[in-house]
Write a structure and sequence with these properties.
Glutaredoxin, 5 strands, about 45% helix, about 15% strand
Length: about 180
């Protein structure tokens, strides 16, 4: 019995030691932010963050796509035309696209926008407060929100036609729900 207790104690100490070592070697980026947001969570109140640029006046009752992107991100270059398409197709029905840039410099963002013009809302999280709070770990990452500001889906990365198709279905479904509530 003494041997079993000693063995259990040693295993507990080993487990704690490994947990401490693992914590020391986890990259800061992965632990620097808040908890990872998931479907059903409320998206943080955007006005409470020091964001450069004009936020939409009101998102209440709107279907919103919050898209985190950077100029150096290859998939972001592919997703921008899709965001533009979605804005054109669903904007009059109540869709708001808010693209949140996370570049180190405003110049990098501006240079990207010269080659990828957009009619949707673009802001910059220069101080990385919002990106840290929502714990973005890959680019692009998009959150599709319902009219109550709750996350309906999270898209990590951009996978061409597959992601586009998912956006269209989610947005159409949410716009139908929003229209039904308002009648």
């Amino acid at each position: 019995m003494k041997l079993v207790n000693s063995l259990n104690t040693s295993l507990v100490k080993l487990g704690l030691g490994l947990a401490i070592v693992a914590t020391l070697f986890v990259p800061r980026q992965a632990t620097a932010g808040g908890s990872t947001l998931k479907e059903g969570d409320a998206f943080p109140e955007l006005a409470s963050f020091p964001i450069e640029g004009k936020l939409p006046d009101s998102l209440k009752g709107k279907v919103v796509v919050v898209d985190f992107w950077a100029s150096w991100c290859g998939p972001c270059k592919e997703s921008f035309p899709v965001m533009e398409e979605l804005q054109g197709r669903f904007g009059k029905q109540g869709l708001v696209i808010l693209a949140v840039n996370v570049d180190e410099s405003r110049g990098a963002m501006d240079e990207f926008l010269k080659d990828h013009p957009a009619t949707f809302n673009i802001v910059r999280d220069a101080k990385k407060k919002l990106v840290s709070q929502v714990n973005i770990q890959s680019m692009p990452t998009s959150f599709v929100l319902n009219g109550e500001g709750k996350i309906v889906s999270v898209h990590k990365g951009f996978h061409g036609a597959e992601t586009r198709k998912a956006y269209v279905k989610e947005i159409e479904d949410l716009l139908k729900q929003t229209t039904a509530k308002n009648q």
